[in-house]
């Protein structure tokens, strides 16, 4: 009796990957990924196949409206939006069994399917239908056409996305005769932001939200722009002071060699780059991505940040700084014939080697780039003096100019706080709003933009000191440390209490309203 | 220290008048007006001039975004949105003096300016800036061009309207250095719906809302479609059983005469119509509008419904049914050389006789019609057996067909409940949401779609048995009956308690968030 719903649909492209501002920023460091799910050690593919969890899934389509907010002739364009339902464990129609809905985030579908562990593990407990929606359907033909067309990609916005969610959930409740079933929405990272915002905007559709690793405060000056990299730095420093120092010193070393005659060739050889480096920045950006990724996804049982530092610290005694850095890369990325400096923008994992998939990833990057260039303007920069990274402050004006030249429209850096709020969160929401869990792991760099303090009795922060990005949403594993088990239990207990209160209310009010 | 804000701007056209479904429905009765402000006896213009209240007003402009929800190139079109501020009594910048914001409804500006009495009367008490915004500015040139262009009028939606409000209020708070000033939004009728929805969608912008006579439940089957006319009927019956009976019998009389040879000429003469009737329906629709209007605006001290019934009942002894009906019309509309059967669609009051204004009113009608033809689908019909009106049920399919042929787009009758909610209101909102007053007068036919029961401690219903449409928003008058004085006092006390709690919270949270 459990219902997990997950979707991507028109917005799948948004939901997938807030990859790489390097598309936009040229010489600004790549935007850290807001991926929901765990990155495994890159050299060792994740165990656990998707097929084993997907047998219960049923794929359905909903006729979705292109533009919910206007009444122009083209607003009425309908596209088939795919969603996935697992109703195997559900209590059935005309019961009040809960419905769990997963809001997709920005990772590959395979990762996403794997990542709904929390819902599947806890579904029987809540006696809920298991839904899950996602769709590959895009209006106006192919994804490529949609993203390349300025008029079409203009509909890729979070407000349209959650309006889609609302329409689909209402449709599902009607279809399943589940009018009185409480709906809990769950998402991680960008999906977590959508889940929290959904509870605020559509309380009549969702009873509550679990927003895992949702940096809803990383907008419009709410959180310091250095927050992200300050945590990456702290994670490294805590793991190994020596490793941290090596990385801190490495940037100057790279510059020093790059400035030599034939310096880029030397660096290219040293780091076994697949193509000769055209500028030292690309190497630095690659390393920045490695460090960010292992900090963000520093999960048990493998703890990839440890792996990188063991590589760096454990290199033979006389290895120089850049030799150690390369040893760290090899330890994490695996021993390869060459290393693709663009991998973090267009990954080349064996899983995604097909041409089609590559194109898809590129388009996902473009979609994500558009999203960050429109409303999801997260000013993440390096400028902290204690950072292990070289300074690279976020430059809003430059960012706006680049976005305008790329997409012809300019970002609205204040829109997220205008539409969803964020300033004075506790003051505003502690007498308004209810039933939101903001879960975080404090080793996740994005926790610097997360809600880490209880807002009220039912808008609460559940965090772990040792957790990383969206860890609580992953399936339970035998190797899970006690603090992770406890976090998930706390979340389940809180959600169960919302549902229990709702059932009480239902008895009181159902015949009177 | 009081702040009243009121606006219309791009959406002025929407906000003005949900006039006349007769544009749409052909032989369905005209849609009752959702006008915020009191209709006086038509033959005696309202006393009290606008100039006397408008001296303190300052007119300003805001560069408003055409489309908040999409990122298409045209979404970024900027138009100057006019708003009006009265800051004479305000506490000043860097204080925490409240800001009262009035959301315009669908009446002429003159009526609207008159109607902010509640805010002006209570402003000193709240020590608030007095704002008030309204703008005549419409993107893409003239109103006519905007409304005739399917692409432009498509942006006339409530979601865009309240996003505009949010942007302007945030802008005003910044301009006036009023970051911590609590904002109370106030509106009547359609403006009241916007105020209530605004508090739900933008709690970070408005601390609370006074939604006067806001029929937020007159959508999507929430309230019975006969509700409106059932109350009109009740109002007449309570005032005079004889008057009610005369009206009830009059429809058949009209049909009987109309079916005679030269019947329409007889009726035209009998009712001194300005143009010869082409069908009896137009007379019936006119009478329907008279009865609806006097019921909706049956206010002290004149009580126009009484005037109509005194006309009907007080006609010379041997006057027949239709003679009595006409006497009622004359009593209310005044003794005229002829009666314009289209007056309720395109009023010809002396005040609005200029050609320009006429054109404006027609366009307002078109704008309102578009609004009811897009999202504000209120299924108001006659089918009650105890009604004093002939049966005329609301036919959604016919309505949709007519809207499509008029505007090329079809209504979304479920959108209001999808975006704003409405089903199971108490169940949903009693643990979510706060600080909304739903005020109603039970003699107002629209109260049949209003919230008449407390939802929680701070989402409350304040109604009067004898009140009519938006009566509480009008300026205090010496002739106000005790129940009206009490209603306003209750509203003021509740709003004061929200602000007081907010100030307490501010001390607790301001330095911690």
Automatic annotation (TrEMBL), chains A, B:
<dbReference type="GO" id="GO:0008239">
    <property type="term" value="F:dipeptidyl-peptidase activity"/>
</dbReference>
<feature type="signal peptide">
    <location>
        <begin position="1"/>
        <end position="26"/>
    </location>
</feature>
<dbReference type="InterPro" id="IPR008758">
    <property type="entry name" value="Peptidase_S28"/>
</dbReference>
<keyword id="KW-0121">Carboxypeptidase</keyword>
<keyword id="KW-0732">Signal</keyword>
<dbReference type="InterPro" id="IPR042269">
    <property type="entry name" value="Ser_carbopepase_S28_SKS"/>
</dbReference>
<dbReference type="InterPro" id="IPR029058">
    <property type="entry name" value="AB_hydrolase_fold"/>
</dbReference>
<dbReference type="GO" id="GO:0006508">
    <property type="term" value="P:proteolysis"/>
</dbReference>
<dbReference type="GO" id="GO:0070008">
    <property type="term" value="F:serine-type exopeptidase activity"/>
</dbReference>
<dbReference type="Pfam" id="PF05577">
    <property type="entry name" value="Peptidase_S28"/>
</dbReference>
<keyword id="KW-0378">Hydrolase</keyword>
<protein>
    <submittedName>
        <fullName>Serine carboxypeptidase S28 family protein</fullName>
    </submittedName>
</protein>
<comment type="similarity">
    <text>Belongs to the peptidase S28 family.</text>
</comment>
<keyword id="KW-0325">Glycoprotein</keyword>
<dbReference type="GO" id="GO:0004180">
    <property type="term" value="F:carboxypeptidase activity"/>
</dbReference>
<keyword id="KW-0645">Protease</keyword>
């Amino acid at each position: 009796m459990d219902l997990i719903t997950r979707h991507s649909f028109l917005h799948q492209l948004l939901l997938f990957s807030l990859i790489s501002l390097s598309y936009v920023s040229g010489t600004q460091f790549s935007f850290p990924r807001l991926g929901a799910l765990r990155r495994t050690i890159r050299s060792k593919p994740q165990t656990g196949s998707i097929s084993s969890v997907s047998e219960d899934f049923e794929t359905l389509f909903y006729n979705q409206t292109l533009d919910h907010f206007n009444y122009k002739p083209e607003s009425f364009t309908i596209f088939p939006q795919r969603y996935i339902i697992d109703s195997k464990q559900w209590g059935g129609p005309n019961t009040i069994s809960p419905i769990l809905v997963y809001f997709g985030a920005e990772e590959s579908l395979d990762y996403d399917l794997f990542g709904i562990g929390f819902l599947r593990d806890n579904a029987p407990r809540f006696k809920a239908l298991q839904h899950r929606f996602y769709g590959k359907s895009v209006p106006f033909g192919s994804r490529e056409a949609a993203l390349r067309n300025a008029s079409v990609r203009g509909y890729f916005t979070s407000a349209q996305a959650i309006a889609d969610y609302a329409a689909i959930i209402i449709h599902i409740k009607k279809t399943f005769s589940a009018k009185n079933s409480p709906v809990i929405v769950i998402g991680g990272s960008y999906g977590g932001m959508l889940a929290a915002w959904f509870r605020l905007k559509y309380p009549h559709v969702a009873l509550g939200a679990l927003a895992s690793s949702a940096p809803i405060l990383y907008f419009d000056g709410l959180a310091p722009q250095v927050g992200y990299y300050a945590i990456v730095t702290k994670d490294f420093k805590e793991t190994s002071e020596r490793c941290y120092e090596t990385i801190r010193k490495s940037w100057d070393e790279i510059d020093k060699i790059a400035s030599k005659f034939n310096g880029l060739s030397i660096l290219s050889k040293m780091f076994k780059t697949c193509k000769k480096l055209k500028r030292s920045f690309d190497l630095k950006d690659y390393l920045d991505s490695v460090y960010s990724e292992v900090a963000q996804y520093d999960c048990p049982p493998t703890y990839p940040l440890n792996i990188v530092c063991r590589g760096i610290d454990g290199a033979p005694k006389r290895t120089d700084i850049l030799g150690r850095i390369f040893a760290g890369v090899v330890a994490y990325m695996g021993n390869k014939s060459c290393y693709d400096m663009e991998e973090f923008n267009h990954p080349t994992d064996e899983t995604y080697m097909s041409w089609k998939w590559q194109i898809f990833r590129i388009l996902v990057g473009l979609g994500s780039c558009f999203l960050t260039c429109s409303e999801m303007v997260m000013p993440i920069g390096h400028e902290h003096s204690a950072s292990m990274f070289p300074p690279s402050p976020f430059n809003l004006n430059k960012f706006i100019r680049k976005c305008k030249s790329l997409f012809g429209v300019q970002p609205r850096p204040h829109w997220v706080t205008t539409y969803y709020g964020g300033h004075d969160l506790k003051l505003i929401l502690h007498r308004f709003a209810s039933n939101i869990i903001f879960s975080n792991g404090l080793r996740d760099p994005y926790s610097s933009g997360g809600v880490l303090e209880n807002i009220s009795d039912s808008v609460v922060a559940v965090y772990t000191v040792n957790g990383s990005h969206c860890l609580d949403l992953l399936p339970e594993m035998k190797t899970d440390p006690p603090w992770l088990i406890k976090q998930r239990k706390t979340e389940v207990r809180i959600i169960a209490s919302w549902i229990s209160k709702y059932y009480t209310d239902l008895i009181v009010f159902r015949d009177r309203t």
